[in-house]
TrEMBL record:
Record domain Tripartite ATP-independent periplasmic transporters DctQ component: where: 40-167
Protein name in UniProt: TRAP transporter small permease protein
Primary location: membrane
GO terms (BP aspect): C4-dicarboxylate transport
Membrane-related topology note: Multi-pass membrane protein
One Gene Ontology MF term: transmembrane transporter activity
Keywords on record: Cell inner membrane, Cell membrane, Membrane, Transmembrane, Transmembrane helix, Transport
Taxonomic path: Bacteria, Pseudomonadati, Pseudomonadota, Alphaproteobacteria, Geminicoccales
Segments crossing the lipid bilayer: 27-50, 62-80, 101-122, 148-170
Length: 202
């Protein structure tokens, strides 16, 4: 199916959604960075206080929550930046058409993984809400709070995956292989070298 004017509105919509996802994911990464710095500061204070026989009573627990939340919210940005590990031994040795097929298979498998992941995560959070579970710690944190923040990051990751999947599928169906390569295609060694060189000079 060739790309026609009838698909242009859908292309613009998906590109707009991808742009929104990029901006929000970037902001999320910056927020996660600030959260990590706060967790590190809290741990340093905890170490100092323990040297004087005192404690914050919860630094270890809170830092664990931070790690989980930061991980889930960083997934979308890593996906957009193509930072996830992909095996490209075959990918880099085939033609553009087969690369498009491999890209499509990869993103659809990622979408399937996200559906399964979210179903399991929701069962966990729903069980926590139903039981009113709290952490077995001095803080007795209601576990639904960190779990919901963690799940929110995974939901945003899922949204990004589905937008990328839809854009990749549309590009594949319309024969727009350049768009597929741009939004989801694996980066070549030359691209990575150029990016590292640009970062070093910047």
């Amino acid at each position: 199916m060739a790309r026609t004017a009838s698909t242009a509105p859908l292309v613009r919509t998906l590109d707009c959604l991808l742009g929104i996802s990029t901006r929000i994911s970037r902001a999320g990464v910056w927020a996660c960075g600030a959260l990590l710095f706060a967790a590190v500061a809290m741990i340093v204070i905890e170490i100092v206080l323990r040297a004087f026989g005192s404690s914050l009573h919860g630094a270890h627990e809170l830092s664990g929550y931070v790690l989980a939340i930061v991980t889930s919210w960083g997934l979308a940005w890593a996906l957009i930046e193509k930072a996830h590990i992909r095996i490209d031994v075959i990918y880099m040795r085939v033609g553009p058409r087969l690369r498009t097929v491999l890209d499509l298979i990869a993103i659809l498998m990622m979408a399937l993984f996200v559906v399964v992941l979210l179903s399991q995560v929701w069962e966990l959070v729903a069980g926590t809400l139903k039981r009113g579970s709290t952490a077995n710690t001095p803080l007795q944190t209601p576990l639904w709070i960190p779990q919901m923040l963690w799940m929110a990051g995974l939901v945003w990751f899922a949204f990004t995956v589905f937008v990328l999947a839809a854009r990749t599928l549309l590009g594949a169906l319309t024969g727009d292989r350049d768009a597929v390569a741009r939004v989801w295609g694996n980066r070549s060694i030359e691209d990575e070298i150029a990016e590292n060189d640009h970062s070093t000079r910047g």
